[in-house]
Structures are given as structure tokens and as C-alpha cells.
Amino acid sequence: MNGNSNHQTWKELELIGKSLINTRFKAIYYVSQTGSTNSDLISQASQGAEDGLVLATGHQVKGRGRLDRLWEAPPETNLLFSILIQPRILPQSFPLVTPALALSLVNVLAGHSVDSQVKWPNDVWLSGKNRGKIAGILAESVKVDDLSQKLVIGMGCNVAWPTSKDEVPFEASSLKEVGLDIEPNDLLCAVLLEFENQLNKLENPNGPELLRKELLKKSATIGKRVLVQQHSGDIEGEAVDLDPSGALIISDGVKEYSVLAGDVVHLREA
Fold first, then answer.
1. Picking from 6-20, 127-141, 189-203, 240-254, which range would have the lowest pLDDT averaged per residue?
2. Is pLDDT larger for residue 245 or for residue 191?
3. What is the spatial distance between Cα 86 and Cα 161, in angstroms, rounded to a whole number?
4. Which CATH architecture has domain 225-266?
5. What is the C-alpha to C-alpha distance for residues 127 and 161, in angstroms, rounded to an integer?
6. Among residues of the chain, what percentage have pLDDT more than 90?
7. What is the pTM of this model?
8. What end-to-end distance do the CA atoms of the chain give, in Å?
9. Domain extents in the chain
10. Which terminal residue of the chain has fewer beta carbons within 10 Å of its beta carbon, N or C?
11. Taking every pair of C-alpha atoms in the chain, what is the biggest distance, in angstroms?
12. What pLDDT, in 10s, does the model give residues 112-171?
């Protein structure tokens, strides 16, 4: 495929493609710079691109997070990619795909002796004394026809930037900062392999419950006192559970709230 991202040609990543031959991720491309890999794949989806298309880049100049927050890392320092998928799950379970990708990164890092957790709804944070955000995920739906839709899900993972010498944004850290020296492409391959495993589990009848149980074990949010910021009003209480749809259950001591979206702030205990 020849893509058009800031007039640059997409280059197929053949080595990654071979290692992922038995997964749904068989078309994996790289472009040195683009505005946003999510935006690129949304455009490709509207042109009929198939399930499993992956685009990685060395530099995003219009990378977006939740609430359209901009995020830009120095070129060729971090892992930046998006995936186009059509999960074989009910539409109401689509919100689970985001934590499934977050969990995939957590599991891969555990194999490198790096402890991390999923911060609800879409971040991965290092645990313990090295605490800091290392990855964020943004999922966007694309309507295919009146009966189906696809997802574009993007991840930015801090591999070599920022370090303690940099001006750190949003309490961010990086894998380099905790001593893990890994090439972004190698990390991409490992994350996609684990994501395939998570999607296969999620597509089983009891998949949402299996994912929920694993997320509870690896959550940075459950058990914490939190403030959830929403347009409809803030909610403060203890994060006590996740439901099978991926919603966060919060108790204020009197009432329980089910939250599907919002910015979560972990509060310090009084």
C-alpha cells in the first residue's frame, strides 16, 4: 500500500509482518512523519481498508489524546502507532478494546521485569517508586455501514523520551528512565502479539468477564479515592469495581455510580 501522510510513502515493516503471520495484523506500515496515525487510518477505513491494518510513525506533529490534548515527542524516540480493527464482539463491548490494548502493554513489560498498571480509562503507568505515565491510548469508531463499524485505536508509548533531564509533561516517564533498552519496532511486535491474544479472549462468550478480572488485578485505579471530571459534573469517591462493559464503579459511601467516560484524578488519602 502506498499511503499519503504529509506526502510520504508508507513502508511495509516486513520483519514484523513475518512474526505476526498467524495474527490478524498482516499489513503493517511505517511512515517517518505524519500528522496523526489515527487520522490516517480513519481515512483509510473510509476507503475500504481491511481489518488488521497497522500504521507506525517516527514522529507525529498532531498526535492527540483524550479531549484532543496535543502530544508531541521528539522524532524517532517513542513508539507511535494505530490499528484498524473490526472486533468480532457486540458493539456494547467495543469500549473494552482500549483496556485490552493497555493490558497488552502491561503484560509485555512484565516480561521485561518492568512493573506497570492500567490507569482507567486509557493510560499505562509505571508502578512503585518509578511511578509515571508511559502510554496513552485513543480509540475512535468508524461507521462501515448501517450494521457495522470499525475501530481505530492508537497508542503512544514513551520508549526513550522523556527522561529526568527533560521537561516532563503530565508526570510522564519512559522505559529508558527505568533501564529498559528496547527498539520501538520490537516493542510494537510484542504488543501486537499480546493484543491478538487479548482480542481472541475478548471474542469468546465469557471474554468481557475474563478481561474484567485481569484488569482488576492490574489496575492502578481500583481501590483508590478518585475524582472523575465530566461535563455533567464531577464525581468523587472510591473506585471499587469495573463492570463487564469496562465502566468504572465509584462509591461515595452512599451511592454507587457507573462511569463510562471521564478524566480520573487519583486523590491523596486524607
1. 6-20
2. 191
3. 32
4. Roll (2.30)
5. 18
6. 67
7. 0.92
8. 56
9. 11-217, 225-266
10. C
11. 57
12. 999 999 999 889 999 988 889 999 999 999 987 777 789 999 999 999 998 878 776 668
Give the whole-angstrom CA distance, residue 53 versus residue 176: 28
Quick one: cell of 129? Answer: 517508586
DSSP assignment of the chain equals: ----BTTB--EE-HHHHHHTTTSS--EEEEES-BS-HHHHHHHHHHTTPPTTEEEEES-BSS-B-GGG-B--PPTTSSEEEEEEE--SS-GGGGGGHHHHHHHHHHHHHHTTT--EEEETTTEEEE-GGG-EEEEEEEEEEEE-SSS-EEEEEEEEE-SS---TTS--STTB--TGGGT----HHHHHHHHHHHHHHHHHHHTSTTHHHHHHHHHHHTBSSTTSEEEEE-TT--EEEEEEEE-TTSPEEEE-SS-EEEESS-EEEEPPP-
Query: String of b and e for 229-265 (b: at least 16 CB within 10 Å)?
Result: eeeeeebebbbebbeeebbbbbeeeeeeeebeebebe
pLDDT tens column, 193-237: 999 999 999 999 999 999 999 999 999 999 999 999 888 888 999
CATH of domain 11-217: 3.30.930.10
Amino acid at 217: K
Whether 242 contacts 228, CB under 8 Å? no
